[in-house]
Ribosome biogenesis GTPase A
Amino acid sequence: MSEVQSVQWFPGHMAKTRRAIQSSLKLVDIVAELIDARIPVSSRNPVLKSIIGNKPKIVLLNKFDMADPARTAEWMDYFKQHKTVAIPIDCKTGKGLNRLLPEIKNILREQIAAWERKGMVGRPIRIMVVGVPNVGKSSLINRLCKGGNAGKAAVQDKPGVTRRNQWFAIGKGLELLDTPGVLWPKFEDPVVGEHLAFTGAVRDEILDIEGLSYRLLELLQDLYPEAVNTRYKTDIRPEEELKGHEILERIGRKRGMLISGGEIDTERAAVNVLDEYRGGKLGRITLEPVGRPLK
């Protein structure tokens, strides 16, 4: 296997975000944790549990349309076994979001009943959305917003677009508090940082793109060996046991990514592989199956 990249990214605004989440918890009734269905382990902030304490929570597995359906079903079973309400959703198309309000009302049924006993019928439910950068929080809000003065959240395929807390009235008796994407000070497992980088949660500018593509290609060969062959017509046989750089070179040659002297433009090929993985062009892939150690 190629060497694991050390990814450490904790800009100053991340520490500020953590403090903002802590101070805003008293303003909301429930926390919606948005994670990436392709990397359900790496896209969950390990310090979030200590931040939100006993506040009710629901987990939203975004981008499930890009994840392996069988693996997503296994993750849903996992969350159920751990008594956590989870919903697979796709923020861009809105799939699965029709379950959000009923599930939240069920989680908060005792609290809602208490409000009604106090005469607070119709009190809006206030939700805080949290998640790592680029996980789809802004797309979620834009899908839920129903005109009025709610406005739209900035959407961009780059981490770190949302930089301050914002409230949105999203109709149906819901108010939603968006927070900037928050990473954590240190990745205890370097593979976590790497998996976040695969999906675009860490800025490419601070990464060794070629090295990252090597690791991704090796992981794909392990989990989905036909994905690369199908997309790039590389005709890789299992017995070849190619390293990541060898797979990338074969992809570059197949795609005609050559520079002077017939040398393969591996940087261009690496960018292409990462872009196509992030765009779902290699198929529905889950890099972190339930119970499988990260590597």
